[in-house]
C-alpha cells in the first residue's frame, strides 16, 4: 500500500498535490470546499496553490484538518507553511535546518527495525483491545490493495482520524513498516500463548465482530451454531478432528496468496 507521509515532503503544496491525486476524482471540488472552510474566495485558494500567495498559519491549521494528521505530522506541516511564508533568508535557513532534522529523525526511526521481536505486554494490551488492529494489519497484507486511507477507513467503518491513530501505533511498534513509501506487514510476532491474559480478549473481539456481521447476511459468509447431545467418544473425536482441521488450515493459509480477508471463529465447549 502506498502510504503518503508528510515527512517525505519539504514543500507543503507538493504534499497536497500528491494527496489530491489519491482522492476519488483526483480531489475534484477540493478548492471550493476549502474556500468555504476558510471563508475565503476560490480565487484566493487557487492563488495559494499556484504559489502566487502564501497561506496564513491560521488557515494552514484549518487546512491540516483535512489530512487527519497526528500531533507530530501537524507540527511538521505547519513548519512547512512557515518555511514557505517567510521572506527572511536567515529565518528560512533556520527553518530548513529544522525540516531536514525532522526528516532525518523520521528516516532513522523507520530504519530501526528489530527483527522478530515479541510484543511487550503494554503493546499487547493495546493491540488486543480491539479487532481493528489485527483487521487493519491483515488488509495491508493483501497483494491487490488500494493506497487510499479513506478506502481503508470506509472498509473498517471508522473515521479517518481513528485510522491514522491505529496506523501510527502499528508502525511505531513495527507491526507495520514503511518500505519505499509503501506500508507492509512488519516483523513483530503477534502469537499468543494459550495462557496469555489477552487470549480471552482476542476471542471476544472477533466474536463480537462476527455478531455484527451476521445481520448483513452476505452469501460469502457462513455462520453455524449447534448445541447438541452426543456420546463422550464422539465429543472427543470431533475435538480431535477440529484440531487437525485447524492445523491444516493454518498451513494452507500460510502458503496461499493474500487476496482477501476472512475471520474463522471455532468454539467447541461443554455446557
- Average pLDDT, to the nearest integer? 87
Structural class: mainly alpha
- The strand order across the widest sheet is 1-2
Distance between the termini: 45 Å
What is the CATH topology of the domain at 6-111?
Answer: 434 Repressor (Amino-terminal Domain)
TL;DR?
The protein has 271 residues and is mainly alpha-helical. It is 55% helix and 3% strand.
Walk me through this protein's architecture.
The chain is an all-alpha fold and 271 residues long. The chain has a domain at 6-111: 434 Repressor (Amino-terminal Domain) (Orthogonal Bundle). 55% of the residues lie in helices and 3% in strands. It is built from twelve helices and two strands, in the order ααααααααααββαα. Strands 1-2 form a two-stranded antiparallel sheet. α4 (57-64) packs antiparallel against α5 and α9 crosses α10. The longest helix is centred in the last third of the chain and has 24 residues, at 232-255. It is elongated.
